[in-house]
Design a protein that fits this description.
Radius of gyration: 18 Å
Largest sheet: 6 strands, mixed
Order of helices and strands: HEEHHEEEEEEEEHE
Helix content: 10-25%
Structural class: alpha+beta
């Protein structure tokens, strides 16, 4: 299904409990910050995932954590690692482009977790395989190719470090009648099945665009 454990564990629980139809099933408010080095090169992304209340409840119950109480250091570390241990080759539902060139990203670095208004929030860093000085068309797309997870980019992307008068904005997904119909079709697919259309989640993705002088 994906290269991370949460979807597999949650799917198993749903299938055992009810004949759920669920594409997407997990909803995440996503965030991205752009981190630059002293030479003005983009070297890291900071990713934030803010999970929907139902998924957050599942995560906490699965770990035996009482979300109404302050997190201990041990529980915070366990929660931070819950959805950030990925299979080899998994892209992490985050895709960075420099124009038409795809830029590889590391697995999560220094993951952190908190509970905010009953929702689990994970935050972690990802290093670029090839740091670069952005110009007119760098962008981050956050989506699950199989559309099990649905991401909405929120807030204004942060810019940290030395950069060439860069500006970052969110470009929301724009629905069309065709895509709206496709979403309704996908919502009828059982949680344990994969959509026939390859990379279907890309059709519904928001973009964080980075433009520099």
């Amino acid at each position: 299904m994906t290269g991370r454990g949460l979807a597999l564990v949650l799917a198993a629980g749903l299938i055992a409990g009810s004949p759920a139809a669920a594409h997407p099933h997990i909803f995440i408010d996503g965030g991205v910050d752009f981190l630059f080095d002293g030479e003005g090169r983009l070297t890291r992304l900071r990713i934030t995932w803010d999970y929907d209340p139902m998924t957050s409840l599942f995560m906490l119950e699965d770990l035996g954590i009482d979300g109404s109480k302050p997190l201990s250091d041990e529980d915070r570390a366990r929660l931070a690692g819950y959805d950030t241990a990925w299979d080899e080759g998994y892209a992490g539902d985050t895709y960075l482009w420099n124009g038409e060139q795809a830029i590889g990203l590391s697995n999560p670095i220094a993951p952190e977790a908190e509970i905010r208004d009953g929702r689990v929030v994970l935050r972690f860093l990802r290093d670029l395989d090839k740091p670069f000085r952005p110009r007119s068309d760098a962008r981050v797309e956050m989506y699950d190719p199989e559309y099990y997870y649905s991401y909405t980019l929120v807030g204004t992307p942060g810019l940290e470090g030395t950069h060439d008068r860069c500006r970052a904005t969110i470009e929301p997904y724009e629905p069309t009648s065709k895509l709206t119909f496709l979403q309704k079709t996908l919502s009828a697919i059982p949680v344990d099945q994969t959509p026939d259309q390859a990379n279907v989640g890309e059709l519904f993705t928001d973009k964080a665009r980075l433009r520099c002088d």
